[in-house]
Amino acid sequence: MTLSLVEKNILVTGVSRPMGIGAAITKTLAKAGANVITHGYSNYDKEQQYKDTAAHFPSTLANKLAEEGHCVTALESSDLSLKDVPEQVIAEAASKFGYLDGLVLNHAYSVCMSLEEWTAEHIDAHMNINIRASMLMIKAFAKQKPQNRNSAITLFTSGQYLGPMTREIAYAVSKDAIIGLCKQAAIALAPQNIRVNCINPGATDTGYCEGEAYETVEKMFPRGRWGTPEDAAKLVHFLHSDYADWITGEVIASEGGFRRDIMLD
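Above: the chain's sequence. Below: its structure in token form.
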């Protein structure tokens, strides 16, 4: 048994900005020896006005890691809400090394909106990107996987199953569906030696929160700090290693003992 990911070809989605979880996952898996392929959609970051939005970041990250002796390939930015794109991304990623034996579905669409403001477009955006795209990518991944490879899929949920998220219900509903997808796909894909697990990384400091709100959330962690992208990345690394060979269908909360009982929603 080993934590080495040498000779594993892993696609990571949601890689588009320096402070994101996807960037941390990419670095961690690459440094563990994996051949990593990344996918992201930079237009979304621009729309959300993230402070670390950077043009051509995936290529920049891949080049930097290559200079350090690691193997990372960045795919062109594309919109997973379009019905044909998810399977196209899997096909393109698989072509880089002949096949994929790891899939990390880290991408997410999340826009805060009160119940009174909901629109069909707002709801559809969350369902199409967070759920439909993930389902189509899992289907395509399973189809291309060589029979003799043990493979792993990691999904990302949120904390909605542990407490309310009333300012972002469409997102919360889509992430609850991801839990269902994990549990169903884990059983369906077990005969193909594909493990499927789901991570709840908790409140993670990716640059989206500042000021008083940041300090309020910080106090809800017993250790007095936010979760970091690297915290989530370490768990992804473990789940794609040989040490996690007997773990499937699980929802794993990695959120530092986050105290919802003192949270004001």
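The two ends are 43 Å apart (CA to CA).
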